[in-house]
Amino acid sequence: MKQTRTKIFIVISSISLIILLVIQVNWILHTAKIKEDLFNEKANMVLSKTTEAIRSDEQACKEIGACTAENDEGVAAKLGKNEIHKIDSLFKYYMKFYNFYIDYTFEVVKPKVKSNNETSFSNNIFNKPLQNLVGNNGVELKLIFPEKKQFIMAEMGTLFITSVILILVVFVLFWRTILSLLKEKKIWEHTTDFLNNMTHEFKTPLTNIALASKMLMKDSTNKQPDKIKHYSEIILEENEKLNLQIEQVLSMTALERGEIPLQKIELDFHQLINDTLKCIGIQIENQQGNIKLNLLAEIFVIKGDKTHFTNALCNLIDNAIKYAKEKPDITIHTYNRGKFLVMEVSDNGIGIEKKYQKKVFDKFFRIPTGDIHNVKGFGLGLAYVKKIVEIHQGIIEIKSEPNKGTIFTISLPNV
User: Fold this and answer.
1) Residues 216 and 305 grouped into a single domain
2) Is 177 among the domain residues?
3) 120 CB neighbour count, 10 Å cutoff
4) What would the mean pLDDT of 237-253 be, rounded to a whole number?
5) Please, what is the angle between helix 81-97 and helix 2-55, to 10°?
6) What is the extent of the structural domain holding 132?
7) Which of 95, 123, 146 is the last residue of a domain?
């Protein structure tokens, strides 16, 4: 239901934004049309006034009329300098009169085809017939603006730039809002999964403790030391499991806040691996598994926190055991690469699909398995390992294929 509401919100928000953007774009285009109409009106007024002034000048009419005696278009080429200067002066006067400051050119032509005076953003030619000339040979005066489009854009100026910037800002903010919403949704889903897993994980040891306590109370009157000892061991073991689970959650939170100071010392990493296996080796034996050490690194001393590195290595091995298809087969391989000590932990487990390989290091993330939870955990193990590696200036990588096992590679700077 919540997922449906989120999708509806995104769809409605997207449609609303698109409508607003369409309105904004239409408004910009409408403004450009108004500016163009104003431009055309001024251009036509300048051209009309100039044409009227020429028609009222008898000498100019005679000169132009004489030049159009022959049936050709090259009228301007035959006009004298005085006539050209007179026409140009009239254009300049009326351009200034109407506050119309833009570069122009003009032509006096005798077109073979009747001119169309329709104007547009791309049409920068205005024409008007010069009537009452001697001979009345259909001569036209053309006023041309080579930079009409640039002039109108410059007239819009700040308005246009501001509108474009606002559109971009709205797009960016909307996109960021959607990303934040999806991120919050993802966090909410992970938190819900975490709480469900935590409830499931805590329920089992608490139930075992409660049952063992009842049996202990029941059998304590029978004075059977073996049973009392057995129930007491169950209580202690389950209590230890609870403590470890709580400590894992608290340690991860404290690490992210930087509240746990690291005690960095020079560590013999090969010795650290061997010491860790002494603690976790019993789990491998119980599963009838095998672990192989291939410690080939010649330089294996690093500077780091022994406790956290031990916990990180335990997490990797524990995952290899839990996700083994049958009997765990684990290999730990070390070697040097440049100034780094590299450790690879490989297993024969179920593997990880490529689409989940980057997500496995996210806090609370667990690979979806539907309602089946064969493997227990909070989804904090690999997030903890990645955090420990990174605060030691190291790099952790994963290589895996479904049903072909997984290889975790950790690169740490040498001392």
Assistant:
1) no
2) no
3) 9
4) 67
5) 130
6) 2-146
7) 146
